[in-house]
Predict the structure.
Amino acid sequence: MSVQKEETEDLDAGQIHDILRNDRRRLAIRCLREVGGSMSVRDLSEEVATRETGEAPAPRDKRRSVYVSLHQTHLPKLDDLRIVDYDTDTKEVSLRDRAAEITTYMEVVPRYGITWAEYYLVLGVLGFGTVLAASIGTPLLGALGAPAVAAVYLLLLSGSAAYHVFSQDRSLFEGLRAQSSGPPTADD
């Protein structure tokens, strides 16, 4: 198992982009996040291969190829950067707290392939336009009234933001708690 290294330095932009430039590394991190942070390399490679091929189960040669590349290249790299803990003896991998540093770079609404920022921008523009249309009395929207239309968009915005916050590895409150507790000590 890798030796626990100090995590006092943040990843620089080059390291983050290097991690995320590889599809397989992104998929591995995403899979680990979705299952709660830990799994065997075998299970991880099967899940990554399934997502890459769109076949369940993925062909055996594809699963083997993914396993070998994760074991020999991607997981050791992520372990060196302290994104995951990779135990080469037990073949278990788990996300570390530091993985949250790259979470913002992975924030994409997967089904549509847009960033959360783009999603909120579109929602805001649509909301503004619809409330404006309701306030000038367009058919249907005018009958509902601007306050009712605005309330619907505020509910949609609040629901989206709640989903966004709770779907992330680390919430605002966890980040604040970590900052207030200070740097890790030798006992941590």
User: Anything to note?
Assistant: Confidence is low (pLDDT under 50) at residues 1-6, 183-188. The chain is about 60% helix and 10% strand.
